[in-house]
Every structure is written in structure tokens, then in C-alpha cells.
Design goal:
Elements: H1 20-31, E1 34-35, H2 47-59, H3 72-86, E2 96-99, H4 101-113, E3 119-124, H5 128-137, E4 140-145, E5 147-149, E6 152-154, H6 157-163, E7 168-174, H7 186-198, E8 202-206, E9 231-236, H8 237-241, E10 249-252, H9 255-265, H10 274-283, H11 288-311, E11 315-317, E12 324-328, H12 337-348, E13 350-351, E14 353-354, H13 362-365, E15 368-372, H14 377-387
Parallel strand pairs: 1-13, 3-4, 3-7, 7-8, 8-9
Antiparallel strand pairs: 2-10, 5-6, 9-10, 11-12, 12-15, 14-15
Helix pairs in contact: 1-12, 2-10, 3-10, 4-5, 4-9, 11-14
């Protein structure tokens, strides 16, 4: 068969198509609905951080290629952040890599660390880029499903243990967890760490919601015994500072792991976001009052939307972290999240996302629908009113 006889898209990516976020955002625009589908704020972050970016642009800092590992000011700020919040000592020169958001950090980590045929365990449901990145690396995705338990979703540690085989290369862990809002407990993290050490596994942790936790403080997996040399920790500025368009993320890990990830990253974007890196360095040094403030603001918005969704008849899994609330639509007499989300904009002018897109076992996620609450209070109040309206019933 000739070159044109095969579909243009390579078969590793053929299953992925357009992301659900693009489809639902287009639906929001077409119908004029309130978009609670995609996780981006509808207001900018702190004015002083925005001004820091403008200052960097005007001063000519970062307008040309920044250093491959990231600008020294930001790498130093990342190490200060890890020490300030978690008591971790990280070397800014050998153990930090700045990336084009956490999404690139995940892609570079998986492309660097996974070979064709390696198994990658991920907590299901998972952010959709995980599956695509594992596929691009030639890895085999092994989902371990978080299941409803009361008003939250829980990890079954026995199921996790049973998923590890001789072909398992790494565990891809996300806590605070998108889309369920679950935050793994200290004991759960300790069990994951013990398993990784016992079976000699790498762990890539996506911790972008580290400051958006509404109960106990976030605990990085790397802080557990035996994890320093086997953990790639990923975070970013987008969620913490409400500048998601800047795409500034970072990897912290032992030198040999950072070197490996950088080997892949340099052929993806090489470098990015030059002036924004200087601004994020200043953002990471904001006083505790900023971090407390954004958390409390989001907690209030979570409660506003959760209460409204409960009143509208959804079963609500009140999240312990992140931007998102997962709901069960079965109390509304619905079972198909895709159909529900596609009809919701026309019915009551609100866009949500079906959780099934985050599952390999789509039937497991079918009745669950995710709403984002990182919006202005007035927008959430309007959305709640629409969801309770006559068209919704």
C-alpha cells in the first residue's frame, strides 16, 4: 500500500481525535452557554505578577531564547518554593527543568522514561493528555480506577498493587486529582511509595493543584522514604496564579532523571515563555496571604456550585482539591454523560464535560459529569440558577 493509502494520523494517536474540551468549548460559543467545562479562570491572576511580565518584556529579559533548563531566577524560585512549603532541598542547577506548562513536562517525562512495551499505571479517570502521551511513547496504559465511596472517590490500594507486573515501568500519579477532586491521604501516598520502592518503579507525579487543597495540606510523594531517586515531580504556574495561557511548568527530580527528561524536552519546544519565566519567579515568592486567599476564594466557589448542583438534583462528590466538581447524573434519571453534556447547553445554557472521556473503561465513567468552579461568583450563581430552571427538569 502506498503512502497515501494509509490514514494520515499515525495509529498510536488515531484513537484520540479532537479533545472533548475543544468540542464543548465550541458548543458553549455556538449556544451562548456558560462554559463550566474547561478548567481556566475567567479573571487574570495578581496584577503585580502581570506587571512583572510586562517589565521583563520591556527590559528585554527573555525576549530571546532563555537557557535550556530555564532562567536561573525561576529555577531558584522553584527550589525556594519546594523548601518553603515542603522542606525539600532541590539543587536549582541540576534538579530543576522549566517546561511549557505541566502538559509538556508530562509528555517529556513519558517520552524520556518509557520505551515501547513498558506498562504505565495511571489513576483512572485521568486528564486526557496522559493517555495520548503514553501512546506517543509507545507505552501500554494500565488504568487503576478510582471508585465512588460515599461523597468522594477512593484509590483501592490492593487494585494498584495487583496492577504492577514485571513490565511496569512507572506509575503516573495525580494528586490533587483531576477530575474527581480527590486528594490522596498520607497513608495512601505512603503505600504508593512503599510499592514503588518494593517493585523498583519510577513515579511521575502531577501536582499542579498543590495549592488548591481545601482540607489538609498537600504532601508531595517525593518526601516519602526511598522516593527521592525515583520520583519526577511536576507542577506549574497556570493553576496557582490564574495565568493558564502563559504555560510555565517545571520538573523537579534527581539529576539523572532531570537529564533524561531534558533530553526529550529539548526536542519538543527547546525553550518557551521567556519573559513569563521571570514573572513566575516573582509569583512563587508572593506572601502566604496570596496562597491562602486563592484557596479560600476557590473553597467558597466550590461550595456555591456544589450546593447549587445538589439543589438541582445531582449527586455531588464535593472535592478536596482542584477546580472541579464531579457529579452523578443518575438521580436526574440520566445515565449517559455524553448525551447529557451535549444536550445541557440547549436545555439550560450551561456546558459541562462528560467524565467518560477520562476513562479507558468508558462505561465506568458514563454517569459522571464534571463542572469547573474557577469562575467569577456571579457566573457560578447564574449557572446554578439556570441548572435549577424549568428547562433543566
Amino acid at each position: 500500500m502506498g503512502a497515501m493509502g494509509r490514514p494520515p494520523l499515525n495509529r498510536r494517536l488515531a484513537a484520540f481525535g479532537t479533545t472533548i474540551f475543544a468540542e464543548m468549548s465550541a458548543l458553549a460559543v455556538r449556544t451562548g452557554a456558560i462554559n463550566l467545562g474547561q478548567g481556566f479562570p475567567d479573571t487574570d491572576g495578581p496584577e503585580e505578577v502581570r506587571e512583572a511580565a510586562v517589565r521583563a518584556l520591556r527590559d528585554g529579559r527573555g525576549n530571546q531564547y532563555p537557557p535550556g533548563p530555564g532562567v536561573p531566577e525561576l529555577r531558584t524560585a522553584v527550589t525556594e518554593h519546594q523548601r518553603r512549603w515542603y522542606g525539600l532541598d532541590v539543587d536549582p542547577d541540576t534538579e530543576v527543568l522549566i517546561t511549557a506548562g505541566a502538559t509538556e513536562a508530562i509528555a517529556a517525562s513519558l517520552l524520556a522514561l518509557v520505551e515501547p512495551g513498558d506498562e504505565v499505571i495511571a489513576l483512572e479517570p485521568y486528564y486526557d493528555s496522559y493517555a495520548a502521551c503514553v501512546a506517543m511513547a509507545g507505552g501500554v496504559r494500565v488504568p487503576v480506577t478510582l471508585r465512588p465511596d460515599g461523597d468522594t472517590f477512593r484509590l483501592d490500594l490492593d487494585e494498584l498493587r495487583a496492577a504492577v507486573t514485571d513490565r511496569t515501568r512507572l506509575i503516573l500519579l495525580n494528586t490533587p486529582h483531576n477530575p474527581t477532586g480527590t486528594v490522596l491521604t498520607h497513608d495512601e501516598l505512603a503505600a504508593v511509595a512503599e510499592l514503588a520502592v518494593e517493585r523498583d518503579l519510577l513515579v511521575v507525579t502531577d501536582e499542579v493543584y498543590e495549592h488548591l487543597v481545601f482540607g489538609t495540606a498537600h504532601t508531595p510523594l517525593v518526601s516519602f522514604p526511598g522516593m527521592r531517586e525515583r520520583t519526577v515531580t511536576i507542577s506549574s504556574a497556570g493553576k496557582t496564579f490564574s495565568f493558564t495561557g502563559w504555560k510555565v511548568g517545571w520538573v523537579t527530580a534527581a539529576p539523572e532523571l532531570v537529564t533524561a527528561v531534558r533530553s526529550a524536552k529539548q526536542y519538543l519546544t527547546y525553550v518557551s515563555a521567556g519573559p513569563f519565566q521571570y514573572a513566575v519567579a516573582e509569583a512563587l515568592r508572593l506572601p502566604d496571604a496570596y496562597f491562602d486567599g486563592i484557596r479560600e476564594d476557590l473553597r467558597a466557589k466550590r461550595d456555591l456550585l456544589a450546593d447549587g448542583l445538589t439543589d438541582a438534583g445531582f449527586q455531588v462528590f464535593r472535592p478536596s482539591g482542584t477546580y472541579f466538581i464531579t457529579t452523578d447524573i443518575r438521580p436526574l434519571g440520566e445515565t449517559d454523560g455524553f448525551a447529557f453534556c451535549r444536550s445541557l447547553p440547549e436545555r439550560c445554557g450551561v456546558v459541562a464535560v462528560p467524565n467518560a472521556v477520562f476513562y479507558d473503561h468508558q462505561d465506568q465513567g458514563s454517569p459522571f459529569v464534571r463542572f469547573a468552579f474557577c469562575k467569577r461568583e456571579s457566573v457560578l450563581t447564574e449557572a446554578v440558577g439556570r441548572l435549577k430552571g424549568p428547562a433543566a427538569s
